[in-house]
Specification:
It is a single chain. This protein is an alpha+beta fold and 129 residues long. The chain has 3 helices and 8 strands. 20% of the residues lie in helices and 46% in strands. The N and C termini lie far apart (31 Å).
Length: 129
């Protein structure tokens, strides 16, 4: 297996009022926000367009379960299917099945502290079209 994590794909956190959080970050830190939060564009070492997503979630969101934490990290990966197989072999807790969308594949695991981690094999060009 060549690479596992290639970068940070997203920072997700719970808040009482996601709209108020987006408005605050837009006003005070200049985030370009939309319904999902804010997307940060950058280039990898090979010059490919890449993105990292920042998103506030409602405090009662179930998206981070089974973790009890108010945050979830999303990591960009290569070859998610192979990585999930290797992680299972290594004894890592894998949650659910891989899901595929026009913007990439997603899988979920728990780290050693019980934090839910989202793994994303992105298709960044989807956002640029």
């Amino acid at each position: 297996m060549k690479k596992r994590v290639t970068g940070i794909g997203g920072l997700f956190f719970k808040t009482k009022d996601p709209k108020a959080s987006k408005d605050w970050y837009q006003k005070h830190l200049g985030f370009n926000t939309d319904d999902y939060g804010s997307t940060f564009w950058w280039k990898d070492k090979d010059g490919n367009n890449c993105s990292t997503q920042w998103s506030p979630f409602k405090e009662d969101s179930k998206h981070f379960e089974p973790s009890k934490k108010d945050f979830m990290f999303n990591y960009r990966v290569e070859n998610l299917t192979e990585l999930i197989t290797v992680l299972k072999e290594e004894g890592v807790t894998v949650l659910g099945e891989i899901e595929e969308y026009s913007y990439g594949k997603f899988g979920w695991i728990l780290d050693n502290d019980g934090n839910k981690i989202e793994l994303w094999e992105p298709i960044d060009k989807t956002f640029l079209e």
